[in-house]
Design goal:
The chain has 324 residues and is α+β, with helices and mostly antiparallel strands. The chain is 31% helix and 32% strand. α1 crosses α4 and α5 crosses α6. It is globular. The relative contact order is 0.09.
Length: 324
């Protein structure tokens, strides 16, 4: 089967994905001039095979959209899922055509960074940084890494500082993109930066303009006028901590959202919610909630068994750590 599949790949992940697929003996059809040059020593580049699967970026660049002949499409999707345990897979239908959308969270992007680095010098966080400033990232990598590939970590840190951390300041409002496993993106109430620590890659936000329900999820306690939340995140961490307060400073409770590792951008936080969460009341009681929702998403094929078990393990460890 795999020797008969021809892949046409476009977008910011093209180099990394081409490297991935040629290592699995799949043919690349109609490559761009750049890809053709970068892979000139590889077999099966610019193959005469018919196009079996087409791959392109999704609109927000957080992943890819695949379409093609069903058997070949399923083979390619399964290959990705087997090698990137944290990807999120969603079946889509647009204009009568069936597609598969694959989101690349933090760890998948990191693995794609490493794959691209096997072809051309590439900084850590390359694909995330390219979502922010594609031309600038490409220019800096070309200028600083072409003759000094050993500097990739150093250059990567400098780029991350310039494109993300240097654009934070106290009082700035940051959006929170709470992506769901089914593809919906819920915009939580914005947060005002209270503190940020580039050395620890931590960010603390105060949120006062709640959206949605009149009760706190999980805690089952009412929201009152003047309530606010403190949200703490760390780049690459598997959770967001939300501590809720009444206007007088009394703690309402804590909500720990288990998610794919947090990705910080200059104007937002993004992660994919893994459904399962941990809550703690002021009296110290803790509870793991919504585990059954994660199990449902596993059955529907959105997440892998490995990612599901990782989320459950994190929830159990956190509950024990909190004393529950």
């Amino acid at each position: 089967m795999k020797n008969e599949i021809g892949l046409k790949i476009r977008g910011i992940y093209a180099t990394a994905l081409t490297r991935f697929f040629v290592s699995h003996n799949l043919a690349i059809v109609l490559p761009s001039k750049q890809i053709k040059e970068r892979f000139r020593n590889y077999e099966k580049i610019d193959s005469p095979e018919p196009i079996g699967v087409e791959i392109q970026d999704v609109e927000d660049k957080q992943g890819i959209l695949l379409k093609g002949e069903p058997n070949q499409l399923n083979f390619v999707v399964d290959l990705i899922r087997q090698n990137f345990f944290d990807v999120i897979c969603r079946e889509r239908r647009y204009g009568g055509f069936e597609f598969v959308e694959i989101e690349f969270p933090y760890l998948a992007k990191s693995k794609l960074d490493d794959l691209r680095n096997k072809v051309i010098p590439t900084v850590p966080n390359h694909h995330r940084l390219r979502i922010i400033a594609p031309e600038y990232v490409d220019l800096m990598e070309k200028r600083q890494l072409t003759n000094h590939p050993e500097k990739r970590e150093e250059v990567g840190k400098a780029l991350k500082k310039r494109l993300i951390w240097d654009r934070f300041e106290k009082g700035k409002e940051i959006a929170i993109e709470h992506a769901k496993l089914d593809g919906r993106v819920i915009s939580l109430s914005e947060g005002e930066i209270i503190e940020f620590k580039p050395e620890g890659e931590k960010l603390s936000l105060q949120r006062t303009r709640y959206k949605g329900r009149n009760k706190y999820d999980g805690l089952n306690l009412p929201k009152e006028a003047g309530d606010y939340a403190m949200t703490e995140v760390k780049d690459g961490d598997w959770l967001c901590k939300h501590t809720y307060y009444h206007r007088d400073g009394e703690v309402v409770g804590e909500y720990y959202n288990i998610s794919t590792p947090v990705e910080l951008y200059p104007d937002k936080i993004r992660y994919v919610d893994l459904e399962i969460d941990v809550v703690r009341w002021p009296d110290g009681r803790t509870e793991i909630i919504e585990e059954e929702l994660l199990d449902q998403k596993l059955k529907l094929g959105y997440v892998s068994e490995e990612l599901t078990e990782k989320a459950k393990e994190l929830a159990r460890e956190l509950k024990a750590e909190l004393g529950g």
